């Protein structure tokens, strides 16, 4: 893990394989245009273009977090089939210049949803 105050190495690259995000049997997102963001020693995160996300399953929340390297994130609760995943998706609407490629994309917690790649 990075020492406090030390900027972790962040890379953003296109994912060549299809990425699907599911909650139960509901397809929440499906794309062939995902980005993979790798930050320091954290697991990679898939960012999906917003237009490839079934936004009808997402309810905006008041939850926000701030990353010193990416900016402020806002969150959505994902609903479907009587289930809810609170703050299960997030996005950086105005990310810092170094990570501007993730603007217009949403990310999902892989421990709360199923993310299939390939």
UniProtKB/TrEMBL annotation:
Gene3D superfamilies the record matches: Domain of unknown function (DUF427) (2.170.150.40)
Origin: domain of life: Bacteria
Domain DUF427 per the UniProt entry, residue ranges: 21-111
InterPro entries: DUF427, DUF427_sf
PANTHER family membership: BLR5716 PROTEIN, DUF427 DOMAIN PROTEIN (AFU_ORTHOLOGUE AFUA_3G02220)
Protein name per UniProt: DUF427 domain-containing protein
């Amino acid at each position: 893990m990075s020492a406090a105050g030390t900027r972790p190495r962040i890379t953003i690259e296109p994912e060549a394989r299809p990425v699907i995000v599911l909650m139960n049997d509901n397809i929440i997102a499906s794309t062939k245009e995902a980005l993979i963001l790798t930050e320091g020693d954290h697991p990679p995160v898939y960012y999906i273009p917003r237009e490839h996300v079934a936004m009808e399953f997402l309810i905006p929340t008041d939850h926000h977090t701030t990353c010193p390297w990416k900016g402020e994130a806002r969150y959505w609760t994902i609903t479907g089939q009587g289930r809810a995943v609170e703050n299960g998706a997030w996005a950086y609407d105005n990310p810092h210049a170094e990570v501007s490629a993730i603007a217009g994309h949403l990310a999902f917690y892989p421990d709360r949803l199923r993310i299939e790649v390939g």
